């Protein structure tokens, strides 16, 4: 069962490969807020021909409130509506609100369903369940259930690639599964790798063009993945967002939502009291040199 865990990396093989090559292991206002950055691109082209993985960290732009009782499993921003799926049997829900928490709407999942990732497709949304084997299609405005579709295996993260007409789903393995956005039928899959090593524990997902951002479960790492090749092109260290006291009461990072039309993202976690609007920025060269022991990559 995906119980509350301390924030430690459990993808030892992939983390070791990344480290060896290029990596180290207050309520706000609404969005888009302070001067939005230029429209972003997917970012998959930032990994050079040698296959080096770009190292990034987060720069906080704004701090927003978050329900500290929400066991966050999925997060997505559509316009000025923030959607969230929460887990735990008997406590699972799907929610919508403004990013500042106002105008909240909440619908509970019936026991024993365990809510997982979600994604929005215009007037509808899909919500996964963990080991219940059903995806729930909902009305995006009212959150009312429309139908359920069966699938095999576990459900973890979910996002939508409109240009490709498909959904992208994770199940905790190194696989990303592609699904038809209307029928939920499986249409393909790809293995995510970093330096030819599989990257497992892929969890909450966010699609931006041909790029998929995947939160690695039980860590503060987010992988930037080229969905066409499965290769990791960047690794984002999102550690240190909570104070030590906040971190004691919270669980792992789990929630990544792109802010449309900008290069900004919303990040939160299970039982976190805050959501952070951030920009992913390169790790300074000096910090990289310290982390790498002065080695050149």
Structure description:
The protein has 297 residues and is mostly beta strands. It has three helices and 22 strands. It has helices at residues 12-21, 244-249, 285-291, and strands at 54-65, 72-78, 81-86, 93-97, 105-108, 115-121, 124-129, 134-139, 145-150, 158-161, 166-170, 175-180, 186-191, 193-194, 197-198, 202-208, 211-216, 221-226, 232-237, 253-258, 264-269, 274-282. The strands form five sheets. The chain has an eight-stranded mixed β-sheet, with no helix packed on it. The radius of gyration is 18 Å and the shape is globular. The N and C termini lie far apart (39 Å).
Low-pLDDT stretches: 3-45, 293-297
Write the H/E string, N to C. HEEEEEEEEEEEEEEEEEEEHEEEH
**Order of the strands making up the biggest sheet:** 16-17-18-19-1-22-21-20
Characterize the largest beta sheet: strand count, sense, and whether it forms a barrel.
Answer: 8 strands, mixed
Averaged pLDDT: 84
- The gyration radius over C-alpha positions equals 18 Å
């Amino acid at each position: 069962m995906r119980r509350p865990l301390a924030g430690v990396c459990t993808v030892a093989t992939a983390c070791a490969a990344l480290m060896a090559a290029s990596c180290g292991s207050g309520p706000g206002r609404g969005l888009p807020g302070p001067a939005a950055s230029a429209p972003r691109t997917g970012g998959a082209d930032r990994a050079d021909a040698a296959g080096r993985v770009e190292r990034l960290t987060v720069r906080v732009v704004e701090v927003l409130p978050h329900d500290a009782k929400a066991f966050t499993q999925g997060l997505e921003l559509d316009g000025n509506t923030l959607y969230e799926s929460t887990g735990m049997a008997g406590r699972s829900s799907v929610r919508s609100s403004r990013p500042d928490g106002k105008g909240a709407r909440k619908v509970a999942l019936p026991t024993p369903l365990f809510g997982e990732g979600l994604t929005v497709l215009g007037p509808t949304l899909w919500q996964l369940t963990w080991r219940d084997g059903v995806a729930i299609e909902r009305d995006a405005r009212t959150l009312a259930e429309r139908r359920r579709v069966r699938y095999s295996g576990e459900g973890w993260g979910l996002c939508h690639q409109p240009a490709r007409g498909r959904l992208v789903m994770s199940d905790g393995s190194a696989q990303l599964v592609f699904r038809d956005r209307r029928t939920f039928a499986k249409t393909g899959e790809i293995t995510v790798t970093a330096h030819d090593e599989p990257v497992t524990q892929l969890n909450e997902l966010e699609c931006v063009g041909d790029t998929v951002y995947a939160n690695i479960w039980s860590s503060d790492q987010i992988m930037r993945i080229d969905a066409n090749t499965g290769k990791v092109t960047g690794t984002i260290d999102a550690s240190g967002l909570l104070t030590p006291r906040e971190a004691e009461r919270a669980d792992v990072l789990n929630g990544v939502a792109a802010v449309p039309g900008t290069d900004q993202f919303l990040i939160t976690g299970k039982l976190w009291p805050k959501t952070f609007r951030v920009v992913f920025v390169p790790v300074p060269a000096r910090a990289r040199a310290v982390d790498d022991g002065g080695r050149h990559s």
